[in-house]
Amino acid sequence: MNELKLDALKQVENFLIEGKVKYCEPYGNGHINDTFLVVCDTEKGEHQYILQSINTKIFIPAEVMSNIEKVTDYLKAKSNNPRENLILIKKANGEAYHIDESGRCWRVYEFVTDSLCLERPESVEDFKECAKAFGKFQKDLASFPAESLFETIKDFHNTPKRYNDFLKAVSQDVCGRAKEVEAEIAFVKERESFYSVLLDANKRGELPLRVSHNDTKLNNVMLDKNTRTALCVIDLDTIMPGFSVTDFGDSIRFGASTAAEDEKDLSKVKLDIGLFKAYTEGFLENLKDDFKPSEIMLLPEGAKMMTIECGMRFLTDYLAGDTYFKTKYPEHNLDRCRTQFKLVKEMEDNWDTLKEIVKKYC
Known about the structure:
By secondary structure, the chain is an alpha+beta fold. The chain contains twelve helices and eleven strands. Helix 3 (124-140) runs antiparallel to helix 7 (244-255), helix 4 (159-172) packs parallel to helix 10 (299-320) and helix 8 runs parallel beside helix 12.
């Protein structure tokens, strides 16, 4: 038994779990936190929990856990069913996390039983169910005071700042790569006036500050393993004040593209309008009365913003020497940025169609 697993067995006892621990095994394929499935024997049978060690190199535990505790407690008042909302298991003193002797931070959730999560949608309905989950997440938190949350990653979706960081990387050109990507640099610069669209709409009162998830990929939605219907949203480490349209947009960027994020053959990169339409329907199914028309009409802008911002970040990292994103080969970030820019162009070419799709919900 490895040292981390032994430590996990020890640390889970700090929380108010039911029964006696039967076994503890590494779980899932997450790249940020260490995750374990803990199974306990109780008088009623086996009871399962998820135990996680939070990556303190990326997150400040007190801020992350404060956000998660506030949001999960708020949602718990609406439903205490662990298949509908994440339920934190706390310590005897009421604390939601534990810092061990080495400074490692631990937390425990109720396990979402009879569920599955997907890396990619296997059907249009899978993608729509993902949309329903994130739409419900927005609806349930519509009255939550987003400003009470910590900004755990500063300027995460501040696109004008991302643009300034990009310009700095171009100017410094520390790896001498700028000459080979002049077309990509021009693509970013040509869209400079777009980058403040969402922030400006917020200032005008057209786009309210909300609780945003900020990692709205399909694998952060639990589906019922039998019916494939949405159960709940997981991975709340990046919840913070933000915009609903960026959560929507990141899902579209990732899920409505016909190719992988690092596809070399750009002819394979298309925007699947059918998937965009299905996601829009699922996301807004129960939200029409909670969102103003001005917010709904900015959903395409959210999709384009998240895609151009992501591409810009890949290109910035390529120019800076690949210091942020993990890469598998020298041009990996360049291939990634090119797929995003192709997807942006697809959105622009289909802009009127995207606007018509969302317009009917106003």
